[in-house]
From TrEMBL, chains A, D:
Domain (Dihydroorotate dehydrogenase electron transfer subunit iron-sulphur cluster binding): residue spans on this chain: 217-258
Cofactor: [2Fe-2S] cluster
A GO molecular function held by the record: flavin adenine dinucleotide binding
Organism taxonomic ancestry: unclassified sequences, metagenomes, ecological metagenomes
Protein's organism: freshwater metagenome
Official protein name in the record: Unannotated protein
TrEMBL record, chains B, C:
This protein's name: Unannotated protein
One Pfam family matching this protein: DHO_dh
Family annotation (CDD domains): DHOD_1B_like
Family, per entry: Belongs to the dihydroorotate dehydrogenase family. Type 1 subfamily.
The species this protein was found in: freshwater metagenome
Pathway: Pyrimidine metabolism; UMP biosynthesis via de novo pathway
Keyword set, alphabetical order: Cytoplasm, Flavoprotein, FMN, Oxidoreductase, Pyrimidine biosynthesis
Every Dihydroorotate dehydrogenase catalytic domain range: 6-289
Gene Ontology biological process terms, A to Z: 'de novo' pyrimidine nucleobase biosynthetic process; 'de novo' UMP biosynthetic process
Length: 274, 311, 311, 274
């Protein structure tokens, strides 16, 4: 059980901080938490997954873990309505983390909506490794851009796009990516956001020959690898396409290995397809 | 000393709490959370003859107090499964119940032959709630004749050792009729119940939420259906052991299925909400049984059927 | 102007939200909370030939996101019912769907004869999910032959006027098969679904909680089963109108059943939690339909079956 | 929606006060409220019924309504855990009320456990009519006797029994009833408590020829008369036994009209039994 120590509305989102004790020290950028929602007699039997925004290991004081939640349906709305002091049932950290380069390379971090959350922690790690970090955040409207001040400070450049033009450049992140990649001679893209956006980013990364790591978001029933609901088709090193679990083989995956736009069908040639 | 032991057919188990097929991965994933030897048994996900990609996504939808899934039996096929998963489980010292599923009667026969000589398996759970490709995709467990044929195929090929637990679907007019049929065909015990056929329509896209359209409903929502099925079958076939399942999320729930007639209880969906649910349920069940004055699990099995006292 | 009208067989209704049989008393109780003319129709509790005490208590048990009931069709019998309840409802100006239930084929025939000349009834809902005393208590709706016989008896005796809505149980191997059978026997429309057979065991007394042991499961827990049944039957019989029900508690839920193929929706258990649920659901449904760009309810019926666009 | 304005633990119970506005003025002793439990995404679809302990009509300030809740299962426990300021979905007043005599007669009020709650409001009404009011409260143990100070003051005599002897006389209410009835020449008994207790009281009332009104407690799905789950067999003035709804033909019924101990069977001769 993790106690809520802060819950603040930030634009369209809620920034929630939990006291999680020891486990904060195991959290890496890209990992997620799974939280039970609805309280004791909830009709919602499944946990909700949230990307870890930041984690602070504070030794004996106990660690903190932060997430950014968009009130969407019943589960996320319930969570954003809980007050400081309330204890939630939380499992963390889960899933794969963003791969950190050993060299001081040039990284571009691209986030859509609340997908920006895990990128700020990542940015710090990359900076500490001597990487240059540029960031592009996009959303439909200004309220859905999550970019806290200290987060902004941690990057070399921050470009914002909104579809309705309420802040930053009017358009989508993909409109500005090619230019930024070229100008800043980007070596690697890290992305997090809606699947459609990740696919579009991946196309650009492929076209421009840039490495692309993305955190995917599939419906998850268990979050720990036992249910096989969260799969997506991924081409392995042996060339074989397999339905892999995004909760334990992801959420961070190599963008070029994903067979995109495969919702509602199994890609031809997938291992075991018939 | 409280006696928690139980049996299904000739197989004995230290305690009656098992994982449910398809809800515990290969065992490895749960082993991070607790020692698998704490379980009565690990029931593996239903394995088929060949590797399967399973169904397209989305494969799940949450529903009130439950969920739908349409995994479509994704898995590596029996050969890889025996090579990797079984040997790993055996190394852990876990009690193993292997679940098998086929698309034809012949599949069941071949699967049984492949398993008959395998060491370290306690029982076979035969999932006959799968579409029969030879019969317009009709589910084996839905008709007495096809249910019988699948179980007979396993019986003939498995040899005398391994108990056969036939897993039935509640989506039939009379589950007692199917139960009688599969017992006549050689099933030693019954697993009740598989998921209930359901559908969710996404009101945003205005289409079925699951790529496979329909899916199997599981979780607490179906517990009353499971209790009813177990009660009816135990009433009709009091000597046939039942592995109960369906919406068990607490020791109280497991106790309910046991009172209805289950000799052991599998936990599925509850594990998704809580990775250590099986352990919690096991402990709570023992506490409940002792609090009600039972000296052993066995005494409680089917206790709700007793005729004494006022009704 | 948004068109909320709908029809079942030859009967027309101002809007598609009805009460569910057995969940609205005689109408009087709900009339304290809202005007009954706001409803598409009041569906009366299933009435039998003679007065019935119903089952002993306890008659209900709450379950996760649902409840079990075993009322056992308590009621005054058709004669008193026609004399008192129907005339009262007629005086309110309510649209009335009368639900009938019998213990034998002859019962259904007699009930139909008693109703054929009654003024002010829009349709008959024929509840065939009742035990057939002439056939070992087997439920009519569970077998094609008995389902057919009950509906035929009504058809032959009702005359040409009143639409017959056959109400089916989901507790069958193939609900499509039963649907086809009752349509062939003369049903103009179908009511899907009646409750799902379930049981709760009280872990304190260690006996079935309900005096009648088993009961009918209703409420949101069964909505995925209702959606599936409606979808399957609409797919097989696209021209037969469906009155959908099962776990509807919001406009979203009603919309889901309509997308699956229901032309009207009955609300049962939700009324127990909220006496004005039907009105709330009606308003929310209209809002949803308009928000999705529909000009009329009719366009949305079965919309989830459309073939265009990507699946 | 009714806001919780006070929620206090009293012995084994919670005394909860709701701001209910106008409707307080319609509440009579014996009526009950029906409260939705578990919050927005609750798996509990049915309301819980609670006897009205007291109701205050305070005109423009809005009325107050009070109940006494025993945390028992998930629903009542949830309710007792809600804080001041929380708004519950509450319907009231429901059901029949205790019949008030027009003459200043001698009344004995008998309550079991939280069944004492509705008796204090009743006692005040009876006193205002010039009746003498004696009271007997019983429970298994002292913590389960609900008898607030001001309530005690409103009666001429208060006798308490507990089965474990932790307070008052060791035993059951029925042990002391015959004596009190005789001594105080009781004309009418009003009772509220577990069904077994009501039955035992009714036996004494019948034996001693005293009128007996009791508030029964049957499982209720709807509380408004539409579901027929809450029935109990009651003999009408015409001699016919009918399964009547305890939510609208009760909860207060004439004890002598009830066919007691009929759980799990329909009494022979009931109208419509076959
Ligand atoms: C790896 C991962 C990371 C995530 N990170 C965040 C985050 O940082 N902030 C945030 O606000 N949300 C995040 N989500 C989405 C979040 O888990 C919930 O799904 C979302 O809040 C909707 O839940 P709900 O109960 O409000 O909606 P409902 O529609 O009631 O949910 C019903 C079911 O559908 C699933 N579902 C609905 N929408 C989504 C979605 N977009 N993705 C996956 N499953 C969905 C839910 O998990 C639930 O099982 C993440 C999801 C995943 C898988
Ligand atoms: C007319 C009436 C007046 C009542 N007054 C009070 C009161 O003043 N204070 C109080 O604490 N409780 C009272 N109750 C009981 C209360 O309504 C709840 O039933 C009880 O609190 C248990 O609910 P639960 O959710 O905690 O238990 P659960 O066991 O989870 O309840 C499950 C279901 O069983 C029903 N149930 C369980 N116990 C009872 C019971 N004893 N009587 C009726 N139904 C039951 C519940 O209503 C619910 O539908 C009253 C009941 C009725 C019918
Ligand atoms: C995601 C998922 C996958 C399942 N896979 C299988 C399977 O492979 N074989 C099988 O026999 N049952 C399978 N089941 C059914 C469960 O074993 C169990 O019978 C059912 O879910 C009811 O139990 P529960 O409510 O505890 O989940 C699956 C259920 C779920 C939810
Ligand atoms: C208390 C209760 C009584 C019912 N009585 C009847 C009945 O008399 N006739 C009938 O056809 N269906 C009856 N039903 C079934 C409902 O009409 C409906 O089909 C079912 O409850 C599913 O809808 P719901 O989930 O909205 O309640 C009853 C259901 C309940 C809960
Ligand atoms: S969410 Fe269950 S396997 Fe990934
Ligand atoms: S509780 Fe529904 S009729 Fe009384």
């Amino acid at each position: 059980m993790a106690e809520i120590v802060s819950n603040k509305k930030v634009g369209a989102y809620h920034h929630i901080v939990f006291a999680v004790g020891e486990l904060a020290k195991f959290a890496k950028p890209g990992n997620f938490v799974a939280i039970a929602v609805g309280g004791e007699s909830s009709s919602m039997v499944l946990r909700r997954a949230f990307a870890i925004y930041r984690a602070f290991d504070r030794g004996t004081n106990g660690g903190l873990l932060e997430i950014v939640v968009a009130p969407h349906g019943a589960g996320s709305t319930w969570l954003t309505n809980q007050s400081v002091g309330f204890k939630v049932d939380l499992i963390a950290p889960l899933g794969t983390a963003f791969g950190i380069p050993t060299e001081p390379i040039r990284a571009l971090l691209v986030g859509g909506g609340y997908g920006s959350a895990p990128l700020f922690g990542l940015s710090e790690v990359l900076k500490n490794r001597g990487c240059r970090v540029d960031m592009v955040l996009g959303a439909s409207t200004a309220m859905k851009i999550y970019a806290p001040l200290d987060g902004k400070r941690s990057v070399s450049s921050l470009t914002i796009t909104t579809e309705d033009g309420t802040t930053g450049i009017t358009g989508k992140v993909t409109d500005v990516l090619p230019g930024i990649i070229e100008t800043n001679q980007i070596d690697i893209i890290y992305s997090c956001g809606p699947m459609g956006m990740l696919e579009a980013i991946n196309q650009i990364a492929t076209d421009l020959g840039v490495v692309h790591q993305c955190a995917v978001e599939e419906s998850m029933a268990c979050g720990i690898g036992v249910c096989m609901t969260c799969v997506l088709p991924i081409r392995g090193e042996d060339g074989e396409i397999r339905m892999l679990r995004s909760c334990i083989d992801g959420p961070v995956v190599d963008g070029s290995s994903v067979i995109w736009n495969s919702k509602r069908q199994i890609p031809e040639g997938t291992w075991g397809a018939n | 000393m409280f006696n928690f032991r139980t049996s299904l057919g000739q197989a004995e188990f230290e305690n009656p709490i098992f994982t449910a097929s398809g809800c515990a991965g290969s065992g490895k994933e749960l082993a991070q959370f607790f020692d698998l030897t704490e379980l009565g048994a690990v029931v593996t996900k239903s394995i088929m003859l060949k590797a399967r990609s399973g169904r397209a996504t989305p494969r799940m939808a949450e529903t009130p107090s439950g969920m739908l899934n349409s995994i479509g039996l994704q898995g590596p096929g029996i050969d890889l499964f025996l090579e990797k998963d079984i040997s790993w489980l055996r190394d852990q010292g876990a009690r193993i119940v292997v679940s098998i599923a086929g698309e034809s009667v012949e599949d069941y026969a071949v699967l049984a032959r492949k398993l008959r000589a395998v060491q370290g398996i306690s029982a076979l759970e035969v999932n006959i709630s799968c579409p029969n490709v030879e019969n317009r995709g009709q589910v084996f467990a839905c008709q007495p004749a096809t249910a019988r044929a699948a179980i007979e195929a396993v019986r003939r090929n498995i040899g005398g050792e391994l108990p056969i637990i036939a897993k039935l679907t509640p989506d039939v007019t009379s589950i007692v009729e199917i139960a009688e049929e599969v017992v006549a065909a050689g099933a030693d015990a019954l697993a009740l119940i598989n998921t209930v056929l359901g559908m969710v329509i996404d009101t945003n896209t205005m289409r079925p939420k699951l790529a496979g359209k329909t899916g199997g409903l599981s979780g607490p929502a179906i517990r009353p259906v499971a209790v009813r099925a177990i009660y009816q079958v135990h009433e009709a076939l009091p000597n046939v052991k039942i592995l109960g399942m369906g919406g068990v999320a607490s020791g109280r729930d497991a106790f309910e299925l046991i009172l209805a007639g289950a000799s052991a209880v599998s936990v599925g969906t509850a594990t998704f909400g809580n990775p250590t649910a099986v352990i919690k349920i096991k402990e709570e069940l023992q506490t409940q049984l002792i609090a009600h004055g039972f000296d052993s699990l066995r005494e409680a099995v089917g206790y709700a059927h007793r005729k004494d006292g006022n009704q």
